[in-house]
Specification:
Layout: E1 8-11, H1 18-25, H2 28-32, E2 35-39, H3 48-56, E3 62-65, H4 68-78, H5 87-93, H6 98-105, E4 110-115, E5 119-124, H7 141-148, E6 155-159, E7 167-171, E8 174-178, E9 191-196, E10 200-205, H8 209-219, H9 225-233, H10 239-246
Parallel strand pairs: 1-2, 2-3, 5-6, 6-8
Antiparallel strand pairs: 1-9, 4-5, 7-8, 9-10
Helix pairs in contact: 4-5, 4-6, 8-9
Length: about 280
């Protein structure tokens, strides 16, 4: 593999949704990419075993980072925590093979890669220092200063995920990229991802959502799969809903996008609230 890949496809927050992952992997630019970088929350969803198997088949081209939901699957399986707010994650933890649990347990929380045209890039799940911290497209600069503390001056681009909403912004001289979510998008349907090198491009892959819901309903043993898949694959939560829910967790005091306060912690079920894989 080249030391400085010319093209890196970034996928985040797959959440065990194999039809969405397959749609992205079928994209010509993803198939031709030097690396496929997965920024966490890989398996906590309706097809955890199948998604991990699909990524394993990519070999060294796939570079994986662990997210908070991946960590929680390991903790659930080990009995270190009894449950998490997302009911599907508790179910998914019981489906994984032992070697898949070991794989998730060994994933790093950050990766560094020198990408052609961008220089040294830091990849993480939520922020460089924490796998469930929240930063948003409208987070204030003081917040970015907090989460960037300790980063070397050579890091010109930071790629994160976690909040399931794509954006690119400049913060204190660093470019920040969130590719959005492959399997649980907020704001609009589709499998969201990004292409790096030599610049940054946000992409969204359209696929047959109704067919995907039918496939998930048939293949997954999760009890509430049809309702879960309808809610998340159709992106029933708007970007305004998500910003409103996550806003208080980035340290702001005015609530979310419109001042309403919600902590964003729900069971992740189809009754509809915003979840970040916790």
């Amino acid at each position: 593999m080249p030391t400085s890949p010319g093209r890196v496809a970034v996928l985040s927050d797959i959440h065990g949704v194999l039809p969405a992952l397959d749609a992205v992997l079928a994209e010509p630019d993803v198939a031709a990419a030097d690396r496929i970088l997965i920024t966490g929350d890989i398996a906590a969803g309706p097809q955890p075993v199948e998604v991990l198997d699909r990524l394993a088949a990519l070999g060294d081209r796939a570079v994986l980072i662990g997210g908070n939901a991946d960590r929680e699957l390991v903790e659930l399986r080990a009995g270190r925590i009894p449950t998490v707010p997302d009911a599907i994650a508790t179910w998914a933890a019981g489906q994984l093979r032992d070697e898949q649990v070991a794989l998730l347990a060994g994933l790093p929380r950050t990766r560094y890669l020198r990408v052609a045209g961008l220089g040294q890039v830091l990849f993480c799940h939520a922020t460089p220092r924490d796998d469930e911290e929240v930063v948003l497209v409208d987070s204030r600069l003081a917040r970015w200063a907090e989460v960037f503390e300790g980063l070397g001056d050579d890091i010109g681009t930071v790629v994160c995920g976690h909040t399931h909403m794509p954006f690119v912004r400049l913060a204190l001289g660093r470019q920040v990229v969130n590719p959005g979510s492959v399997g649980m998008p907020y704001g609009r349907p589709g499998a969201h991802w990004a292409m790096l090198g030599p610049g940054v491009e946000l992409r969204v892959t359209a696929f047959d959502i109704d067919a995907a819901i039918a496939a998930l309903t048939e293949a997954s043993g999760y009890p509430d799969i049809a309702e879960w898949a309808d809610y998340f694959l159709h992106a029933r939560a708007s970007d305004a809903d998500a910003l409103d829910a996550f806003g208080p967790r980035d340290g702001r005091t005015d609530g979310g996008a419109d001042g309403r306060v919600s902590d964003g912690r729900t069971d992740g079920g189809a009754e509809g609230r915003v979840s970040d894989g916790e």
